[in-house]
Amino acid sequence: VQLVESGGGLVQAGGSLRLSCAVSGSTFSINSMGWYRQAPGKQRELVAIITNGGASTNYADSVKGRFTFFRDNAKNTLYLQMNSLKSEDTAVYYCNLDVRITPMRGVMSYWGQGTQVTVSS
C-alpha cells in the first residue's frame, strides 16, 4: 500500500487549501482512514478520521467546522478540504490508512510522505 499526498503550500490566513492523498495497492479491509499533522516542536496529532466502514467521521475540535474529510472511491483518493485557515494550522500534513492486507494478517498502518501547509498571518 502506498499513499502520496499533494496540495500543500503557502496560503494567507482565511484562505483555503485542498490536500489529496492518492492510495495505491490492494487491501482486504480498511479499519480507518485519517489525516494527521505535525507542527515544528510538537507531536503528531489527529486532524480527522473516518472509521466504521465510512459511517463515522470525526474531527479535532480545533478544525471542526473549517475542515472536511472526504474520499473519492473511484479515484482511490482521500481529500482534506481546509477553509478559514489560521496560522496555527501550519504543519506537515500526513494521510494514514490502517488496513488488513489479507484476512490472516493483523492491522498494519501506512503513512504518506507528508505535505507542508504554511499559513501566513
Summary tags:
11 strands, mainly beta, 121 residues
Set out the fold topology.
Elements: E1 2-6, E2 9-12, E3 17-24, E4 29-38, E5 45-51, E6 56-59, E7 67-72, E8 77-82, E9 91-100, E10 108-111, E11 115-120
Parallel strand pairs: 2-11
Antiparallel strand pairs: 1-3, 3-8, 4-5, 4-9, 5-6, 7-8, 9-10, 9-11
What is this structure, in a nutshell?
With 121 residues, the chain is mainly beta.
Q: What do the pLDDT scores average to?
A: 95
Structural class: mainly beta
Strand content: over 45%
Q: What is the string of SSEs from the N terminus onward? A: EEEEEEEEEEE
DSSP summary, beta strand count? 11
Q: What form results from the Cα inertia axes?
A: elongated
Q: How many strands, what sense, and barrel or not for the largest sheet?
A: 7 strands, mixed
Summed up, the helix count is 0
What share of the residues lie within helices? under 10%
* End-to-end gap: 37 Å
State Rg: 14 Å
Pick out the low-confidence regions: none
